[in-house]
Amino acid sequence: QGKFTLLRDTRTDGSFLVHHFLSFYLRAGCKVCFVALLQSFSHYSIVAQKLGVSLAAAKERGQLVFLEGLKSCLDLLFGEEEQPGQPSPLQFLSGSSCDLRALFDFVRVSLSAAAGDSWKGPMLLVDDLSVLLSLGAAPVAVLDFIHYCRACVCCQLKGNVVVLVHSNEDSEDEENELLVNSLCHHSDLILWAEGLATGFCKDVHGQIKIIKRLSLRQAEQDVVQIYQYKIQDRNVTFFARGLSAAVL
Amino acid sequence: ELPAPLLDDSYRKELGDEAAAVKSEDFQDSMKIAWRYQNLPKMETSPTTYTKFGHYYDVSKKMSPELCQSVKLHSFYLPEELPFEPKMKTWNMNSGYARLLQSIQRIISQEGFDGSDPQKKPRNVLRIGIQSLGSILWGDDVCCSDAPEDPQSLTKFLYVLRGLLRKSLSACIITVPAHLIQNKAIMERVTNLSDMVVGLESFIGSERETNPLYKDYHGLVHVHQIPRLNSLICDVSDTKDLAFRLKRKQFTIERLHLPPDLSDTVSRASKQDLAGSAKLLSSGCGAMAIGKKHLDF
């Protein structure tokens, strides 16, 4: 409980990890707040169905609070004047405020225990944080947002936070690199999906590095494990390096 | 000034005849030395003519005006557009992009592409084409300045456009003069906000123009990203090396072949050259090393 997990991808698409965590936590009976910035609800819904979870049903029974970033953005820019009591979570887009307070308030309200809630532990999932930089948020504002979410979700509510960021090797996007490096230092667990250094391969889609922080205070060595993976239609298979099914 | 579509099948038949002629000349020679490769399919440079996919055009002829007029066409030319409506809330974005987004949203809702009006059932998908996004023609200085005034306008525009496309029956293709954008961070963000990213690299003016490897082609096609929508997997093709060629009537995209290294003096220097050019090549039999280390056989 109270863990911050960072999902990171380089040279490949790490969104399969997001789908995994979403269905994992929903099946575990946790209350999930999903800030989905990059794709539509139906995209996640269709993949979740393949993984055996119905997002629509989860939403209906109050287990899943889904923020569809694309829709929220359209509502903000093309919609009617917003009600004073219900500010848009993506308010920073219209420039009225340059911090992500409205987004944090949305998260906090979604995960606070409501009367009659019997869910195990709250959970915040974000896909993906790098988009906020593209939308004009400063890296400091994004880091502040994550900090507030950790304080609220991990410490106060004893829940978990899982966040996806993109990174590129030799990236010239300094703001993004700053964000990623800073988040790495504060993570309890980092799952780093990378494309193979040797290039594209049909049977091995990439490698995943699992870095577990034993202690954030003492200078203990992190535990690092590396596996390779292949993504299939309904699941992902992991195997030790060099031992893909195609080779054995 | 659009190229004329090939509506009749006569041209396709031409292509088919050519291909058939070539095939009948190949004998089934059994291989003696490279016998391991006997059973691999023959490498085909262009997609097989027997499967009809998409449309074909003759670039030497123009599209007939009757055809153009029969289709409902909306256009957006920034200098002729009305100024940004002041009653819209502040968008914090370059006004050219904001007006374009408003125009697209208006067409989507008026023509019923967002399904909002059950009476208006669109019979087709709205196809949007945007040219030279990011260039000075849109009022953006991202292409001419190292430190642009508002580097986030372009990415914000793409995000809102993505929202509009996801919510309607539409598809959009955008061209961006990436060679003019000095700030590579912006191109990384643009790529992340797009579903499919294809790059065209022309040989004109580069050292590759005279490289014997590329003498048959006019440029390279790089597929940077393919869409991974509604699924865990995506449809990655085996071929990573594509080149394009502009013939008299056609623009074709083909697999790039590395010719055999038959020179007598295979010196270190030329090998480095080839290795450099072959950095992006992968053979059809499996993956070759294309990272920073070249495997020298």
Structure notes:
- Chain A is of the alpha/beta class.
- Chain A contains 8 helices and 9 strands.
- The model of chain A has no long low-confidence stretch (mean pLDDT 86).
- Chain A has a single domain, classed as 3-Layer(aba) Sandwich (Rossmann fold).
- In chain A, helix 5 runs parallel beside helix 7.
- Chain B has 297 residues and is of the alpha+beta class.
- Among the domains of chain B are: 78-192, no CATH class; 195-258, no CATH class.
- In chain B, 24% of the residues lie in helices and 14% in strands.
- In chain B, strands 5-6-7-8 form a 4-stranded antiparallel β-sheet, with no helix packed on it. Chain B has a two-stranded antiparallel sheet with strand order 1-2.
- The chains are: A alpha/beta (248), B alpha+beta (297).
- The A-B interface holds A 13, 15-16, 19, 38-40, 42-43, 46-47, 50, 70-71, 73-74, 77-78, 81, 93-96, 130-131, 133-136, 166, 168, 171-176, 197-202, 231-236 and B 89-92, 101, 105, 152, 155-156, 158-160, 162-164, 166-167, 183-185, 188-189, 192-193, 228-234, 236, 238, 240, 282, 286-291.
- Chain A: Pfam families: ELP6 (PF09807).
Uncertain segments of chain A are none
Q: Assign the CATH class of chain A.
A: Alpha Beta
Number of helices of chain B: 6
Cα distance, first to last residue of chain B?
50 Å
Which word captures the global form of chain A? globular
**Strand order across the biggest sheet of chain B?**
5-6-7-8
Sketch the major β-sheet of chain B: 4 strands, antiparallel
Q: Give the overall shape of chain B.
A: globular
Low-confidence stretches of chain B: 8-28, 44-50, 265-297
Describe the main β-sheet of chain A briefly.
Answer: 9 strands, mixed
H/E series of chain A, N to C?
EHEHHEHHEHHEHEEEE
Q: What is the CATH-assigned architecture of chain A? A: 3-Layer(aba) Sandwich
Quick one: how many beta strands of chain B?
8
The total tally of domains of chain A equals 1
Mean pLDDT of chain A: 86
| Topology pattern of chain B, helix = H, strand = E | EHEHHEHEHEEEEH
Radius of gyration of chain A: 18 Å
Helix content of chain A: 25-40%
Could you estimate the helical fraction of the residues of chain B in percent? Answer: 10-25%
* Record field, number of beta strands of chain A: 9
* Most extensive interface: A-B, 49 and 41 residues
